[in-house]
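Suppose you are handed a protein chain with no further information: no name, no annotation, nothing but its sequence. What can you learn? This example shows the usual starting point.
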Amino acid sequence: MNKETKKKVKLIVRTFLAANKGKSYTSKQICDFINENNLGIRGGVMSGEIGTVCDNRFCYHYGINRERKNGRNIWKYKMVE
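A reasonable first move is to predict its three-dimensional structure. Written in structure tokens, the prediction is:
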């Protein structure tokens, strides 16, 4: 994933979570949203790439709550109100 694609993914994730405040989503659900709606990402995005792009520093900076689901390696993202 190149720099421009990472910027697009970050913007899409922030916008998606801001539009759905109060709800939490896994990286797989966010990935499915991006891939189903053809949001300018050539070749699509995988859920692992979402987890890599949306690291702790990114989430802290934009007020996104990032927590593990059931102690597994599944992350849930939620916009802090």
